């Protein structure tokens, strides 16, 4: 538990460093450059390293597939609802996808250890990998649609290197392609750099946000979706499965984690109101802290 708390503390330290750097250097600190470095150069390292940490087995694959199925089942009505609620295409894009891009890695994995023990790591790792595909395929397309045409949005998916990197990593994992210790260390260094840059980038965006400028409808809609609609729908869907309660609890927990920093990458990259997205990430993270007690109660009484 102490190690988990320390890990979360380190997360906030790097966010604070990004905030201070942007506050001190102002316009000299180019967030666009940091975003490009993260998305196009360092995130592929995070993915390849993530696949190298756990061997994939057939009995494990059902969990990330179910996670993706739940997201797809909820995404379609959310997109349709977004078209009715928001006239602005950028607000519509944020509402449609932000709530589904959760922080399944930096928060989900250590929180899984705290609530369920180390037996949860294999499942949280696979769910985090599945979330990569949600972020960099569906997320890229929807955020792009806030500013780009359908054709250009599809092209933006092709340009993202993390998808082919993930395919290569899956092949290496499934076929047991040997990697030297030096190569594994190389990927680990790149992954840790990418994780730190992600957190640092969040801090730079936090420096300039004005929460009072966030559209109330966008805030209420996205937060309600994240912490009410998605968890309730997930619990109902999971109740119809034959999965052990322990595994159901892990999936339920991952669906409740706050919005991921990856939302900022895509919103910034495609000019889809990154300041608003940053405000939503900050607010969802703050709201998640008291909700942790509710989540702990639910998991202890229903899934353990």
Would you write up a description of this structure?
The chain is mostly helical and 304 residues long. It has a single domain (2-303), classed as Na+/H+ antiporter like fold, CATH 1.20.1530. It is 79% helix and 0% strand. The chain has 13 helices and no strands. The chain has helices at residues 2-25, 31-52, 58-85, 89-97, 108-116, 121-145, 150-159, 162-174, 181-207, 216-239, 245-256, 262-269, 274-303. Helix 1 packs across helix 9 and helix 6 (121-145) packs antiparallel against helix 7.
Structural class: mainly alpha
CATH topology: Na+/H+ antiporter like fold
Low-confidence stretches: none
For the record, the CATH class is: Mainly Alpha
Number of H/I helices: 13
Overall mean confidence score, pLDDT: 86
Total domains: 1
How far the N terminus sits from the C terminus, by CA atoms, comes to 18 Å
Strand % is under 5%
CA radius of gyration:
18 Å
Secondary-structure element pattern, one letter each: HHHHHHHHHHHHH
Based on the coordinates given, report the CATH architecture.
Up-down Bundle
- Report on the biggest sheet: none
Shape: globular
Helix percent band? over 70%
Strand segment tally: 0
């Amino acid at each position: 538990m102490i190690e988990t708390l320390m890990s979360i503390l380190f997360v906030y330290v790097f966010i604070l460093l990004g905030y201070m750097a942007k506050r001190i250097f102002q316009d000299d600190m180019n967030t666009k450059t940091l975003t490009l470095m993260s998305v196009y150069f360092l995130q592929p390292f995070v993915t390849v390293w993530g696949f190298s940490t756990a061997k994939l087995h057939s009995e494990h694959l059902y969990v990330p597939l179910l996670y993706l199925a739940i997201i797809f089942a909820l995404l379609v009505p959310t997109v349709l609802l977004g078209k009715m609620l928001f006239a602005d295409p950028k607000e519509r894009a944020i509402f449609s996808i932000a709530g589904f891009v959760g922080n399944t890695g930096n928060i989900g994995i250590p929180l899984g250890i705290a609530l369920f023990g180390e037996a949860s790591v294999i499942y949280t790792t696979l769910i985090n990998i599945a979330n990569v595909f949600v972020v960099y395929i569906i997320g890229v397309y929807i955020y792009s649609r806030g500013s780009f045409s359908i054709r250009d949005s599809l092209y933006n998916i092709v340009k993202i290197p993390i998808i082919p990197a993930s395919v290569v990593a899956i092949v290496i994992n499934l076929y047991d392609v040997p990697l030297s210790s030096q190569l594994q260390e190389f990927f680990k260094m790149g992954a840790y750099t990418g994780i730190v840059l992600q957190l640092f980038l969040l801090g730079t965006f936090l420096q300039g946000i004005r929460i009072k400028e966030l559209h109330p409808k966008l805030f209420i809609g996205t937060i309600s979706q994240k912490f009410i609609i998605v968890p309730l729908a997930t619990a109902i869907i999971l109740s119809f499965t034959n999965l052990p309660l322990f595994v159901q609890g892990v999936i339920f927990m991952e669906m409740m984690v706050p919005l991921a920093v990856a939302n900022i990458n895509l919103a910034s990259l495609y000019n889809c109101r990154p300041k608003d997205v940053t405000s939503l990430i900050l607010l969802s993270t703050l709201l998640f802290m008291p909700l942790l007690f509710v989540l702990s109660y639910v998991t202890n009484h229903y899934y353990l």
